[in-house]
Amino acid sequence: MVEALTIVLGVGVVRGWRSTLIGAGSAFVLLAVLVAALGPALSHIPIDALRLVVGALLLAFGLQWLRKAILRSSGFVALHDEDVAFRSEREQAAAAGTDMRAGLDWYSFTVAFKGVLLEGLEVVFIVISFGTAQDALGPAAAGAAAAFVVVVAAGVLAQGPLSRVPENTIKFAVGLLLTSFGCFWGAEGAGVDWPGDEVSLLGVIAFFVVLSFALVRLLGRRRVALNARGAEA
Amino acid sequence: MRYIRSFGLFWWDFIVGDDWRVALGVGVALALTALLTHDGVNAWWLLPIAVALLLADSVRRASRS
To answer: DSSP code of B12?
Structure first.
């Protein structure tokens, strides 16, 4: 969401707000339609099969986030900088030519549409996964909507990109939760009875928290050793 | 054809991401868990261990490349 806001702000500031907001709004409507259409459709699938598929997808998706967050925290991948992204977006928006279609600045419309749609698909995926696996699509969608309102309000108040948001920390936490829930539901869907039922989810989360911090520490040491070797050479 | 390819690449990147071995490993671990539970073994421990090994191996390889 923070990245989508940066794209919309970067384009809107340089090229004007009308086409940019129509593009962002169109993507938002499409995402809402996806949740409204896919959520109830998925609820007809037997819960064990659904949890197996949702668990597998959450694991694949969550591990991508967790992997990236661990590599960023240990210094092997650069942290995402919203100020740099904002400047780059502004420069590209200023350099792009003018192409009017259907009364809209086509560049602003398409960039805002794509940015919100692609970033929003991650949110839709999480909302549908959690909502259908727990039979609570409404609260899951409401939670995402609340996060959206908070991000937009923060962007309006800051009048710029949300560069002070600890993005990697948030992604680390989300990656941990997606991985843990994916592991829990995936195993349940495969027929496992967790010892202690849902209480064991806390154990799964704790296990991945400890593992992730251990990996950050190990890789951090490796990074320091590599830097020292590089300085000596 | 180009659009179909782009569409496929987008979903591959969205779900599988940078390391296909992790996605494949998750699939194999889930299949093994299902097989073991089908044979009467409550293999709740298999998936967390498999995921831990896959994650550790993935970040180790990424840090070496």
So the answer is: H
Closest CA to B25 of A60, A176, A192: A60
Q: Taking CB atoms and an 8 Å limit, are A211 and B19 in contact across chains?
A: no
**What is d(CA B63, CA A73) in angstroms, rounded to the nearest whole number?**
12
CB A191 to CB B54 under 8 A?
Answer: no
Residues 6+ apart with CB under 8 A from A76: A219, A223, B59, B62, B63
Contact status of B19 with chain A (Cβ, < 8 Å): yes
Name the E strands within chain B.
none
Q: Do A223 and B63 make contact, defined as CB atoms within 8 angstroms?
A: yes
Burial of A17 per CB tally in 10 Å (0-12, 13-18, 19+): middle
pLDDT digits (tens, 9 = 90+) for A177-221: 999 999 999 999 999 999 988 899 999 999 999 999 999 999 988
Mean pLDDT value across residues A64-76? 91
CA distance B9 to B6: 5
**Residue A16: left if φ>0, alpha if ψ -120 to 50, beta else—which one?**
left
Place of tokens 């300085």: A231
The pTM for the full model equals: 0.76
Domain boundaries, chain B: 17-64
Chain CA centroid to CA A219, Å? 24
Domain range for A104 is 2-232
Phi, psi at A101, each rounded to 5°: -135, 135
A192 touches chain B (CB under 8 A): yes
Considering its fold, how many domains does chain A have in total? 1
A28 and chain B: CB distance < 8 Å anywhere? no
